Amino acid sequence: MRILVIEDDKEIGKLISLYLKRDGFDVMLAEDANRGLKLFYEEKPSLIILDLMLPDFSGYKVLSEIRKESEIPVIIVTAKGEEEDKIVGFRKGADDYIVKPFSFKELLERVKAVLRRAGEGEIIKIKNLTVYPKRFKVFLDDRELNLSSLEFKILMALIKKRGRVISREEILNSVYSLFDEPVIDRAVDVHITNLRKKLKDDPKNPKFIETIRGVGYRIIGNEN
Questions:
Q1: Is the pTM of this model over 0.70?
Q2: Which residues of the chain have pLDDT under 70?
Q3: What is the domain extent for residue 28?
């Protein structure tokens, strides 16, 4: 399990990392919001430990950006201990909220508990493809695929209507929040091509994604 710690206090960040590594976790550290979001997008961690008071912008904004992309578990660790702060944190999508100073042993147990709950989420299996929607992870056989956020969203849009044809327009609508400017239909074809390559899916003899000429695409194969 890979955990991303976004914490500007170097000493606290090192101690959190030490306790997690002792228990077998792989840990990445970021000391500001921008670096934290970059690691989130690129490395796809299993859980995020997030401070609220970061040097570049608020942890609340980080959490909002994360929730646009993923339901990855997020634990807020902060000195802001007022009831209203906790309410805001949970409303924005935090899975747990810990106030500084705290016990590192307790943090470790909370991490394990949150991961257990996340692991109990939905699992989708189609042939030899396994998708964990809440964990933002996709496996082909036992190999994890390195999908971009957009590719994952497109795959989920197809899976949600598996067996049915979904038009390019519907796909665009399902992922529209990811774009800052207008997107043309042909962009969907490019992303589908990239997704097929990662799925090792031959468009002439598709195993997962079938092209319906002039209409759109559909996922073939029933959920196991």
A1: no
A2: 119-122, 176-185, 222-224
A3: 2-119
